[in-house]
Design brief:
Elements: E1 2-6, H1 10-22, E2 26-30, H2 33-42, E3 47-51, E4 53-54, E5 57-58, H3 59-69, E6 74-78, H4 83-91, E7 96-99, H5 104-123, E8 126-129, E9 132-135, E10 140-143, E11 146-148, H6 152-162, E12 168-169, H7 171-179, H8 188-202, E13 212-215, E14 219-222
Parallel strand pairs: 1-2, 1-3, 3-6, 6-7
Antiparallel strand pairs: 4-5, 8-9, 9-10, 10-11, 12-14, 13-14
Amino acid sequence: MKILFVEDDDAIALGLIYSLEKEGYQITHYKTQKEAINALSEQSFDLLLLDVGLPDGNGYEICRYAKSKQEVPVIFLTAMDDEVNIVMGLDIGGDDYITKPFRIKELQSRIRSVMRRYQKQEDDGIAKIRDIIINTKTGKVYKNNTEILLTALEYRLLLVFLNHQGQILSRSQILEGIWDVAGNYVNDNTLSVYIKRLREKLEDDPGDPLIIVTVRGLGYRMEKNNVA
């Protein structure tokens, strides 16, 4: 598996490259935003590991550029662990977020989890819930045959519900589905906001939802309904 790794700290980079190459990953390492974007313009990668703070920019811009070229998983590596930066990184298309310092075993676990999620999306076809059509191969969602524009985080939230149709999901289960072990960074209010936004885009009447319903005291459930 080819990984584009962007990190300007040599000490961190050398140790991480050594450990990941021992696991069989093929690592291409750059220190700057410019080098990384140039590489992405010429070749494709299976995963991006991006430091947020770089000498000539940031990992967010690399992520935006990469996502405009192909649907590739992105994990951010950074010393900034406040919620604003986490939500920003996820909103622009990041798939996970790990703060420094971290254990290599944890990073390897995150990589495997993100790649499993992408593989599952590739294996799925088209799902229909009432008047909503979800094409997991293209990452596009339609309501009454009109495309709905979702943020990356909203889309992942929808996939969590889609993969557990008919099941009651607790708030902690939903967070784990979106951010894996990074779910503890997001509080209940943040989750409530994203569920509200998703309902506003999917439901005919967000105040009386029929697709993503609240199960009082337990969590949420996506109705298992394939009839429009």
